[in-house]
Amino acid sequence: MSDHVRTADGRRLRVEISGDPHGYPVFLLHGTPGSRVGPRPRAMYLHQHGARLISYDRPGYGGSDRRAGRRVADVVDDVSVVADALGLDRFAVAGRSGGAPHALACAALLPDRVTRAAALVGLAPRDAEGLDWFAGMAPSNVSEYRTAFTDPERFAARLIPRSAAIRSDPAKLLEELRPDLTDDDRMIVSDSTIRSMLLRNYLEALRTSPYGWIDDAFALTGPWGFDPAQIDVPVLLWHGGKDVFSPASHSSWLAARIPRVTAVLEPAAAHFASLRALPKALNWLLSGTSPR
Known about the structure:
This protein is of the alpha/beta class. It is built from 11 helices and 8 strands. It has an 8-stranded mixed beta sheet with strand order 1-2-4-3-5-6-7-8, with helices on both faces. Helix 4 (139-150) packs across helix 5 and helix 5 crosses helix 9 (211-221).
């Protein structure tokens, strides 16, 4: 397979595959902003655990064409077309941060294909009944998501120059986030290997346009197009108790509604600790698969 897949409506999706080429397929859905080259377990780890990790740029990011007006639920079209191109009937799905709701969409809307789903440091729907959606969220994220919801044109006008600045120097994004990071998260993003992966990820995410990031924000704060309560496959929710980018209350809300859920809360952890949790989440996804 080439590194691009064409969708039914003619869009191009950029795909990357790592790990064991004969291993069990797991889609890894990147964060916001992010790309197919985002942080993941080392190739040797994937080989040792029999995992074939499949990542692609969501529309508007990296090498994938934009799909204006997309909802979270629309991810299933793109995951399905990539899976079909690879000849995959069944697969697991993981998503981190902005990718987590998209992983839940696959679990809800592709029950005959998704074996298990893991959602790490994700958000709940904006209209989640009984949830104070902004409680515990950093003021910068409150401003960003609120503007995306109430004044989308203003939000886009703000993000376009910001994206251009980050594209010229991706370290700017980490510097913007730094005041809201816990000591533990600062240690994680200061690790040379992780920092290198994050900078490469942000650079690729915004290489061609800011619209992947813009459309993600609109999708996450708009109607998702599915009800998490309809998910009927096993789901792992992982969250750090000190996360201020996507507060742990969001996973608590989801855990109360998803029937077959395993919820893990690490009280001392925050947002970027999910990078350390990803290998364990991958093991959990693989534990529910048939032998190769």
